[in-house]
Amino acid sequence: MTSIGTGYDLANSIFSPDGRNFQVEYAVKAVENGGTAIGIRCKDGVVLAVEKIITSKLLKPGANKRIATVDRHLGVAYSGMVPDGRHFVDRARDEARAWRDTFKTPISTADLASRMGGYMQAYTLYQSVRPFGITAIVGGFDSREEAPVDGEVGSGPSCGAGGKVSSKTHGGPFLYMIEPSGLYWGYYGAATGKGRQAAKAELEKLDLSGAEGGITLEQAVKEAARIIYVAHDDSKDKEFELEMTWISGADGPTKGLHQEVPKALREEAERLAKKALESDDEDEGTEEKKGEEKMEE
Amino acid sequence: MEFGNSGSLSEDGIHLDMDRLKKGEVNLGTSIMAVTFKDGVILGADSRTTTGAYIANRVTDKLTQVHDTIWCCRSGSAADTQAVADIVQYQLGLFATMNGKPPTTQTAAAIFQEICYANKDRLTAGLIIAGWDERHGGQVYSIPLGGSLHKQPYAIGGSGSTYIYGFCDAHWKEGMEEAEAVEFVKGALKEAIKWDGSSGGVIRMVVLTAKGADRHLYLPDTDYKVRHT
Fold first, then answer.
1. How far is it, in rounded angstroms, from Cα A141 to Cα A249?
2. Cβ–Cβ contacts within 10 Å for residue B143, how many?
3. Where are the compositionally biased (Basic and acidic residues) regions (chain A) (predicted)?
4. Is residue A100 within 8 Å of A70, Cβ to Cβ?
5. Among A221-225, A277-281, A287-291, B19-23, whose mean pLDDT is lowest?
6. Given A55, A105, A182, A210, which is the most exposed site by the fewest CB atoms within 10 A?
7. HSE-up of A16 (CA within 13 Å, CB side)?
8. Does A153 contact B149 at a Cβ distance shorter than 8 Å?
C-alpha cells in the first residue's frame, strides 16, 4: 500500500485525500485472516456455519462456540477478531431485548441488521475508537404466524381478526452480512473470512434465489458443511472444527428457533463433505495424468 | 398506593378505584366500545364530557386517531387520556418513518400499555385500542385502569358500559357484515346513553378497513337513525 506512511491511516475520522478511511480497510484485513464463516438462506430456513480453527490441542472440542444466539429466532456468525465478535453479539442481544421492551414483539431480522449496521458504522467515526475487526453474518426467521403481544392477557376472537389482506405473506427466512464499515446487504448466500472466495464460488452454484424451486433446509445444511470443507486450506491450517446452526419456520425442525444443528445430522453432513472432497481430488488426479500423457505424444 | 373506599373488585381481582378524579376535573363519564367485524373493526362512543354534574361538552370526540388506521376510545380523565394518546401518536409516527412501514395495532397497544402501567398511580385512563393492519386485519385491545392488556373480539368501556354487558353478549356475532356491525354498535350505545346519566349526546363511530378510516355521526334529534357527515 502506497498510502502507508502518509499519516492518513493513523486514525478514524480522518479521510485520505482520495476519500478513503484506511482504518476501516485495515479492519477488513483483520477479517480476511479469520476462519471462514458462511450463511445460506433457503426457502424454509437459514443455515450458519463457521470453520473454527483449532489453535491448541489443549482446547476442549465443541467448547468456545463461535455462532451466538441473539434472540429466539436470531443467530450471528462472525469472522475476524473473536473479542470484537463477542462484543457485537452482546450489543445485538441488547438491541433485541430493547425492541421487545418497547414494542412487545420480536425484532425482525432486517431491523436487527439495521441497528447493528448503524452500531458498526459509529465505530468508523471517532478518534477514540477503532472499527470492528469482524464481518458478521446475521440470520433469522421472522414469524409467518401472528404473534401475540408479549404479556397480553386473553387470546382474542376465536374466529381471528377480520379484514386481513390474504394475498400477502409475512415473515420468512432472512440473511444479512455486516462489514466493518457498517455496510450491510441482504443475501441469499454470504461468506466471509479467509476462505470466502472459494465459498462464494460454491454458493453461487446453488439455487438459492428459488429460480428452480430452491434447495431445502436439510440440503442447505449439507451444502454448508461441504462449502466449509472446500474453503478450508489444509496447507495453512491443519485442524478445524465445523460449527453449524440453523433456523426454520414454526412448521420446521427448529420450530422457529435458532439452534445448533443436531450432532447426527452434522456428522452425516461432514461425512458427505469429506466424500465429495475425495471424489473431487480423484477427478483432478486423472485430469493431470491425461495432461501428462498428452505431453508425451 | 391508596385505595378509596368506593372502589370495586372486578372479577379478575383488579381493584378499580372509581373515585380518583380531582375536584372539578373533567371526566369522560362515558360509553365507549370497539368491535371486530368481517372486514376490520368499528369504534364507537357517546359524546358527553362532564365536570361533576355539569356537562362541559355535549359533542365531544372520544375517538382519537394515533395512526392512519389505529385509533383509540378514551374514558376516564380527559386530560390524562389526551396526554397518553398524544405520546402514542408521536411514538407511532416515529416508528413509521424509522421503519418505513406502518406500525401494527399490537405495537400501538403495547406502547399504550407501557405508559398506562408505568404511571398507574397517577393516571385515570380506561382505553380501548382498535386498529386495522394488513397482517392482522382488525383487532381490539382493552387497557383498563390497572394497565393490563386484553385482546378481545370486542370491548366495551366507561361508566355506561355496565348497562350493556347483557345486550352485547346477546347480540354480538363473529364476522358480521359492516352494516350489521354498525347497527350493533349503535344499538348498544343507544342503550348505554338511555340508562347511564353520564353518557349522552351524539353517537360517533369510526370504521377501519383496508380502505382506511371512515367516520360516522348519528344525532339524537332523529333518534340516531340518520347518518350525518
1. 6
2. 24
3. 287-297
4. no
5. A287-291
6. A55
7. 16
8. yes
Q: Which residues have CB under 8 Å from A188's CB, separation 6+?
A: A40, A41, A175, A203, A208, A209
pLDDT averaged over every residue in chain B: 89
Give CA–CA dist A223/A203, Å, rounded.
9
The sign of the CA dihedral A159, A164, A166, A169 is negative
User: For residue A182, what is its C-alpha cell?
Assistant: 457498517
* pTM higher than the cut 0.95: no
Instruction: Decide: helix, strand or coil at residue B132.
Output: strand
Helix (H, G, I), strand (E, B) or coil at B35: strand
- Least Cα separation, residue B3 to chain A (angstroms): 24
The residues, any chain, with a CB within 8 Å of residue B167's CB and separated by 6 or more, are B187, B188, B191
A111 vs B contacts (CB less than 8 Å): 99
Distance CA B42, CA B60 (A): 18
Of B109, B114, B139, the CB nearest to A161: B139
**Mean pLDDT: which of A148-157, A168-177, A257-266 is highest?**
A257-266
Is B30 among the catalytic positions? yes
Percent of chain B whose predicted confidence (pLDDT) is above 70: 90
Place of cell 434447495: A215
Among candidates A152, A163, A170 on the partner chain, residue whose Cβ is nearest the Cβ of B151:
A152
Among A13, A18, A27, CA closest to A178 = A27
Distance of CA A125 to the CA centre of its chain: 25
